[in-house]
Each structure stands twice: as structure tokens, then as C-alpha cells.
Design brief:
2 domains, 14% strand, Ubiquitin-like (UB roll), globular, DNA polymerase, domain 1, 150 residues, alpha+beta, five-stranded mixed β-sheet, binds FE2/S2 (inorganic) cluster
């Protein structure tokens, strides 16, 4: 089955089996390894990407559903974005496993709520687990980036 989609702005054509998980397609076929496999069950957000601008867990999405879709992985975001800088400054990144998913979740959140309240930040990052930071630094980083982005 031929699937045509766009990944990080680049048109892609895949002949992979339609049941191939988007996570495996990104990591194994495209060698985009920013999305991580954590739980593999849609519970941790380590594999999160944006699909047509919406945050999704790529471990749950079969390639066969992606004809014409636009996917953005962490590799498609600027490395020096206000969010990435704020995560660095606030100590929102420690082991880094959750960071790509957190940055993408925060990107989706700020697109919807440019000046989010703490409750909106918590809700926006709710599906992304972090074992290291205790979340406070991540929430602070998102608030700081929102401030900087005006
Ligand atoms: S690996 Fe996809 S949600 Fe955990
Ligand atoms: S920084 Fe380690 S899991 Fe979040």
C-alpha cells in the first residue's frame, strides 16, 4: 500500500505495511529518533508528535491512516525556539526521554492558548509523563516561553 504524507514539511511516500506504527515509521524508516518508545500503549507521551497540528501518540497510529497527513516530529521544530531555550534555562530537561514529547505538547498548547494559565499548562501536558523533573520546572519553562513569545 502506497501512503503519501508530509513529515516535517517534506513530502514522503511509504510502501510500508499499513499497520506499521507511525513511531516505527519515523524511527526506523526515516531515522527520526526524537520520538521515543516508552510504554507503547498510549500512556506516557514519549512518542508524541503533531498530526495535522494535533498532539497524538505515534505508538497508536497506524501508517495506513495517514494518507495526506502532515506530521511534525521534534526534528521539525527549531532547535533554538523560545520553548527549547526556556526548558534549558528552567531545568525542564534532565534525562531527556520525555523532552521531545513535552516540547510538542507545549507547542500544541501554546498554539491554542498563547497565554496559558497554570491549569491550562497542566492540562496541556497531562498526557506526557516525566520521571525526573517533578513537572514544576517544565510548567515554569512553558510559562516563561509563553511570556517571551508574547
Ligand atoms: S510510547 Fe507511545 S504513549 Fe508511551
Ligand atoms: S527529563 Fe527524564 S523523564 Fe522527563
Amino acid at each position: 500500500m502506497t501512503i503519501r504524507l508530509t513529515v516535517n514539511g517534506e513530502p514522503r511516500v511509504s510502501e510500508a505495511a499499513p499497520e506499521t506504527r507511525l513511531l516505527d515509521y519515523l524511527r526506523e524508516e526515516l531515522r527520526l529518533t526524537g520520538a521515543k518508545e516508552g510504554c507503547g500503549e498510549g500512556e506516557c507521551g514519549a512518542c508524541a508528535v503533531l498530526l495535522d497540528g494535533q498532539l497524538v501518540n505515534s505508538c497508536l497510529i497506524p501508517l495506513g491512516q495517514l494518507e495526506g497527513a502532515e506530521v511534525t516530529s521534534i526534528e521539525g521544530l527549531p532547535a533554538d525556539s523560545p520553548l527549547a531555550r526556556a526548558f534549558g534555562r528552567a531545568g525542564g530537561t534532565q534525562c531527556g526521554i520525555c523532552t521531545p514529547g513535552m516540547l510538542l505538547a507545549a507547542t500544541a498548547l501554546l498554539a491554542e492558548h498563547p497565554r496559558p494559565s497554570l491549569e491550562q499548562i497542566r492540562a496541556g501536558l497531562d498526557g506526557n509523563l516525566c520521571r525526573c523533573t517533578g513537572y514544576t520546572r517544565i510548567y515554569a519553562a512553558v510559562a516563561e516561553a509563553a511570556e517571551e513569545m508574547g
